[in-house]
Amino acid sequence: METTNLQPRFKDSPHFKDFWTTGNGKLLIDFSGAEVSLKNFDEFSPYFYHIDEAGDQVVKDIYFTKNFREASKEIEQYIRNGVSANEDIPESIKKMFSQTQTIPHWLNYDLLKSGAELCMRANLDSLISLRDYCLIGGYDFAYLNKPLIATEALKKGAVKRLSETLDFWVNVTRYNALELHKKGYEFAIKTRLIHSYARLSIRKHYKNWDTENWGAPINSWDMMATYIGFSLVFLHSLHKLGNTFSVEEEQGVFHLWKYVGYLLGIPEKLLPDNKKQATELFYIWTSIQPPADKDSVLLAHSLLNESLENPILKYSFQRRNLRYLHISCTWFLLDDEVCKRLQIPEVSNRNAFPLTKRFMNKIYNKVVSRKQRIQKGNKDQLKVLRDYLSITDSSNFH
Questions:
Q1: Do residues 137 and 28 lie in contact, with contact meaning Cβ atoms separated by under 8 Å?
Q2: What angle in degrees, to the nearest 10, is found between the helix axes of 220-228 and 247-263?
Q3: Low-confidence winner among 37-41, 50-54, 255-259, 311-315 (lowest mean pLDDT)
Q4: Considering the domain boundaries, does residue 144 fall inside one?
Q5: Quick one: 74 and 158 in the same domain?
Q6: Which uninterrupted H or E stretch holds 169?
Q7: Together in a domain, 296 and 258
Q8: Structural domain includes residue 213
C-alpha cells in the first residue's frame, strides 16, 4: 500500500457533525448500537490508497493485449469452467482465480440463503432503498463520486447506470447465485474487472486525478463504503419503510455482501459481519469525505430525471408521477440537510406515499406468508430488471 499522512480532515466540519449527531448517522448508531470513534483511523486510512492489484494485472494481461470481445470471451471461459494451477495461462489469471475459487472458512450457505431471501422478500422496497437511499445518498460524499465523473458516467446516462446496478444486484441476490461458476459469481468477477479497467483508464487518461485528496481511483476503502451501502444502509432503509426482519435475515444480508466483497477483491478486514461493525467502519470513512459538490448535484439530478427519460412507462404523466414518488422517498429516507445539498426539489405532501407504504407493509407482512412474499418479490424484481434490460440493450436507446 502507498503510505500517506492522511487525517480525518472533516471531523470538525458541520456536515460530518450534523450527520452523526442529528441526521441519519445518529439513526444508524441507534439502529446498530455502535460505539463510534476515530481511534482506529490510522489502522484503516491506508486503504484509501490500496487497490485490487490482482484484478488490475488480469486486465493488463488479457484486456490490454486483445480486442475487447476476445478478452471477454476468454474471461467467461475461466469463470464458467474454473482455472487450475497447471494450465498454460497468465500467472495473473491463476492468482486471481485461486483466490475467488477458494471458499473462505467463514462462508455459511444458510446465511447466504437468508440474506438472499430478505432481498427478495422486501420486493420493490429493496429497489426503492437501493435507489432513493443507498445510491442517491452516496452522491453526498463528494470524493466517492470522482471515478464516476472521470469515466464520464453522466454522458452514459442514468437509465443505463441504473440498469447495470440493478442487473448486478438482482443476479447476486438470488438463491445459490454465488456458488462457483454460477451467475452471481460471474457478475462479481466481471464487476471486479470492470473496476480494474476503469481504474487503469483513469490513471492513464485523467490527468487531473487528485490522489492525495481523492485516494486511489476505486480504492479499497471506498469499496468498503459502497458495500456498507448495500448492507447497513439498505437494511436501515427497509426498517424506515416499515419492514421487519429476523436476526438471521439481517446477519444473512451482511454475510452475502461480505462474500460478494471477498469475490471483488476487497480486503476481508474491511468487510463487516454485522450492523455494529459496519456503522463503526462507516463513521471512520466519512471523516475524510467532504459534502456534496457540483458534481454530486449533477449526478443526483441525473438520477431523479431518469424517470422522465425512461421509456418503460408509456405516458409522460406516468413518468412525472414516478419522479414525484422517488423524490418523496428520497426526502423521507435521507436527511433534510443532505437533500438540500443535493438540491432535491421540494414537492407537496412528500410524506404521503412513504408513510402509506410503511403502513401497508406492516399489514402485508402480517397477512401474507413469508414464502409467498419471497416468491412475489423475486418475480416482481425480475420483471423490473427485464424491463430495464429491454430498453438499455436496444440499439434505439441512446
A1: no
A2: 150
A3: 311-315
A4: yes
A5: no
A6: helix 158-172
A7: yes
A8: no
Q: Are 248 and 317 part of one and the same domain? A: yes
Is the same domain home to 271 and 169? yes
Q: Which pLDDT score is estimated for 1?
A: 47
Examine residue 209 and state whether it is found in any structural domain, yes or no: no
Handedness of CA 19, 283, 133, 147 (dihedral sign): positive
Q: What does the alpha-carbon distance between residue 254 and residue 257 come to, in Å, rounded to a whole number? A: 5
Dist. CA 270–CA 50, nearest whole Å: 12
Task: Look at residues 99, 131, 165 and tell me which one is the last residue of a structural domain.
Answer: 99
Statement to judge: residues 285 and 339 lie in one domain: yes
Cell reading at 164: 447495470
What residue type is assigned to position 137 of the chain? G
Whole-number pLDDT of residue 156:
80
Query: How many domains is the chain partitioned into structurally?
Result: 2
Contact between 184 and 106 under an 8 Å Cβ cutoff? The reply is no
CA dist., res. 191 & res. 265, Å (int): 11
Which pLDDT band, with edges at 50, 70 and 90, does 86 fall under?
A: confident
Asked if residue 79 is part of any domain, the answer here is: yes
C-alpha triplet 119, 281, 99: angle, nearest 5°:
70
Rounded to an integer, what distance in angstroms lies between the CA atom of residue 340 and that of residue 270?
31
Tens-place pLDDT, residues 147-187:
999 998 877 889 999 999 999 999 999 999 999 999 999 99
Cα 376 to chain centroid distance, Å, stands at: 23
Enter the pTM of the model: 0.95
CA-CA distance, 224 to 176, in Å (whole number)? 23
56-66 residue pLDDT tens: 999 999 999 99
Q: Provide the mean pLDDT of the chain.
A: 95
> Domain range holding 65?
53-99
What is each CA distance from 125 to 49, 275, 338, 379, 380, in whole angstroms? Answer: 35, 19, 21, 14, 11
Average pLDDT over residues 253-259: 98
